[in-house]
Amino acid sequence: MAIKRKMLKGVKDFIYWFYVQYMLVTCAFDMEPWEKVVMHSFTATTLTMSVFTVYLFIPTRLNHAFQFFLHVMCGQREPLLS
């Protein structure tokens, strides 16, 4: 049980450290509350859109690269995966 608490404390400390670094890098400590909301909303939207784009397009691009290199290395005429 003590190990679990220690691990949770470590995770909590890391999240707090990451948040403080984010606030320092973006200079959010010096902003008005409404400016923080706008900046955090923009950052969250950008991060969400980036993650979604990576999730949607990277597997397709990797499949195309795999097919290309398979064709170059083995001389396959037809793709194995559709």
UniProtKB/TrEMBL annotation:
Main location group: endoplasmic reticulum
Membrane topology annotation: Multi-pass membrane protein
One annotated GO biological process: ceramide biosynthetic process
Keyword entries, A-Z: Endoplasmic reticulum, Lipid metabolism, Membrane, Sphingolipid metabolism, Transmembrane, Transmembrane helix
Pfam name, any one: SPT_ssu-like
Subunit field text: Component of the serine palmitoyltransferase (SPT) complex, which is composed of SPTLC1, SPTLC2 or SPTLC3 and SPTSSA or SPTSSB. The heterodimer consisting of SPTLC1 and SPTLC2/SPTLC3 forms the catalytic core of the enzyme, while SPTSSA or SPTSSB subunits determine substrate specificity. SPT also interacts with ORMDL proteins, especially ORMDL3, which negatively regulate SPT activity in the presence of ceramides.
Family listed: Belongs to the SPTSS family. SPTSSB subfamily.
Function field: Component of the serine palmitoyltransferase multisubunit enzyme (SPT) that catalyzes the initial and rate-limiting step in sphingolipid biosynthesis by condensing L-serine and activated acyl-CoA (most commonly palmitoyl-CoA) to form long-chain bases. The SPT complex is composed of SPTLC1, SPTLC2 or SPTLC3 and SPTSSA or SPTSSB. Within this complex, the heterodimer consisting of SPTLC1 and SPTLC2/SPTLC3 forms the catalytic core. Within the SPT complex, SPTSSB stimulates the catalytic activity and plays a role in substrate specificity.
Name by which UniProt lists this protein: Serine palmitoyltransferase small subunit B
